[in-house]
User: What shape does this take?
Amino acid sequence: MMTRKGDVLKRLVIEGKHELSGTIKIGGAKNSVVALIPAAILAEDEAIIYNVPAISDVTNLEIITRYLGSDITYENETIKINNKGLQNKEITSEYSSKLRASYYYMGALLSKYKHVEISFPGGCNIGSRPIDFHLKGFAKMGAKIKQEGDKFIISAKTLKGAEIFLDVASVGATLNLMLAAVKAEGTTHIYNAAMEPEIVNVASFLNSMGAKVQGAGTSEIQIVGVEKLKNGIVEVIPDRIEAGTYLMIGSLLGKDLVIEGIIREHLESVLTKLHEAGANFEVKGCKIIVNRTKKLKPVNVRTLVYPGFPTDLGQPMSTLLTQCEGESMFEETIYENRMRHIKHLNSMGADIKLFDKKAIIRGKTNLIGREVIATDLRAGAAMLVAGMIAEGTTIVTNIEHILRGYEKIVDKLSSVGAVIKIDEI
Ligand code: EPU
Assistant: This one.
């Protein structure tokens, strides 16, 4: 995400080492809602999405949906969309570059109009992030794809059900192809589909409109195309990444800190790893009660696709590993560029040696407040965790990245005792 002349720059100012107690309520999942809003344009007339988090990615998708002519309102954590005025307009890079998820309008508009013109999406700079699986899938369904600069023109006389095998179980490609397939002629199978809970959430939404999606949440999804979709309704699932981040913070600073509104199953890999590190927490239904653990054990963390340890929690976890007594390993396997925060952690006093996508972390190290950069969203979360446990004051710049994915982060943390504020510069 680029900042432009005239934009107000924001930074987080964190005073470290404050004990946290009280309750943090988890919001709706970013990576679900960013697909649900584009998917909503498939509804015949109206769609309702409940439990929408207040994050800037949502604001940017509201802007795109409104630009396309749909009426969209966002009040009381609820988005209502009316598609009566919807038109198939080109989505220029002015709109698409604001976030990664703008690419879901590709599948949605192609499904609805059999034609879409859209520029390359934006998003965090965490690797090359190509969209070749999405495009190959559309082509298999009979679409013709033309690229002019960074603009894609994708058209099909008719979209036909297809047998699609993904080289990598990509979340974005699985969802985009699901969107394209719901109104295609015949049946589509997506093999090696991503199994993330967000895929199930989007499939439920589409099915509420009358789509026939089966198998979401497994590696094989079947979509029987239907001619018409009706109105849609869905509730966004809790954000497992937000919950995991607060759970890590709670393991370092909590005093009966309650993290409320989780789905345990979605967090299993994270809970298992924190348990292995000796973290002190208890899951009670949809709540986790977490306390500071004085002596954390070193562990090895390797990010994987779901149900493995999520890549989006690898970076904040690496901060926690600086507090484990002994040598831990953190390895990222999904993206090439998830280690840009390491030098900032080291500048605060961490002892981390980086070997490409693998980091060896020696702990426990005392972190000291410094000025550091949120180089991307989850790197920002890693710096936030670091600032909260560091001695003195930490300033995190470029926090626009953090605000894309963590709702009301300052309010939520302040309400449980953190000393944290946003400064505008
Ligand atoms: N890939 C390709 N070609 C493609 C698509 C993906 O090579 O056409 C590769 C990617 O380069 C990457 C891997 O496949 O190495 C997985 O990418 P995936 O498509 O699953 O990621 P994504 O859909 O771009 C979403 C989330 C990410 C999250 C990943 C994995 C959204 C908007 N983004 O990205 O979220 O890390 O799935 O769970 O849903 C974040 O929240 O910080 C974030 C980056």
User: Anything to note?
Assistant: DSSP finds 14 helices and 23 strands in the chain.
